[in-house]
Amino acid sequence: MLRIGLTGGIGSGKSTVAAMLAALGAAVIDTDAIARQLAQPGGAAIPVIREAFGDEFIDATGGMDRERMRSLVFADASTRRRLEGILHPMIGIETERQSALSAAPVKVFDVPLLVESGHWRDRVDRVLVVDCSETTQIERVAQRPGWTMDTARAVIAQQASRDARRACADAVIANDDITTAELAAEVRDLWGRWCAMA
């Protein structure tokens, strides 16, 4: 079994690469998706979030008010750490549970904050970074519903730098000015090399 850590800044195209790897046969364990499940209506983190932050951070559906929480955590680092202190242990448990259920020879752990976490590098055999310029990141993220260029810049400022991510990488895919077909070809090439190692 080969464990691959997949990461990249917001808007880098990491999710596209994850989908390509899944199509090739990798078991992709998406820590962002796990975080969303934990904070959705009925999610395991909701009672703790309600207790820590108050009812105003729970929306009408019973899930975490993501927009309100996003505004708060980007404005206050201590609040972000409190939220991470709630979610990260739960994410870790669910990540390992999903990994244990899969018999795939290559497991890809999609971790947006792999470099920032400080512990993920030791839990995987290889790190793949999807990289692009900050300008490209901002343009892509600003097209998402509910996002602006300023919000995108705020997120980027709190993530690891491009240099820090690349320094942690065993492989880097530059995803600025390439077509989807070219991106897929790079992913297939890496996949072939990884499967030979698994």
Describe this structure in words.
By secondary structure, this protein is of the alpha/beta class. It is 56% helix and 13% strand. It has helices at residues 14-24, 31-38, 46-53, 66-75, 77-101, 114-117, 134-142, 149-158, 162-168, 180-197, and strands spanning 2-8, 27-30, 106-110, 126-131, 171-174. A 5-stranded parallel beta sheet has the order 2-3-1-4-5, with helices on both faces. The longest helix has 25 residues, at 77-101. The chain is globular, with a radius of gyration of 17 Å. The protein starts with a strand and ends with a helix.
Radius of gyration: 17 Å
- Order of secondary-structure elements: EHEHHHHEHEHHHEH
Strand content: 5-15%
Largest sheet: 5 strands, parallel
* N-to-C CA distance: 5 Å
- State the strand order across the main sheet: 2-3-1-4-5
Strand elements, count: 5
| Parts with pLDDT < 50 across at least 5 consecutive residues | none
What integer is the average pLDDT?
92
- Judged by helices, strands and strand pairing, the structural class is alpha/beta
Shape: globular
Number of helices: 10
Helical content band: 55-70%
Keywords:
5-stranded parallel beta sheet, alpha/beta, 13% strand, single chain
Question: Helices and strands in order, then pairings?
Answer:
Elements: E1 2-8, H1 14-24, E2 27-30, H2 31-38, H3 46-53, H4 66-75, H5 77-101, E3 106-110, H6 114-117, E4 126-131, H7 134-142, H8 149-158, H9 162-168, E5 171-174, H10 180-197
Parallel strand pairs: 1-3, 1-4, 2-3, 4-5
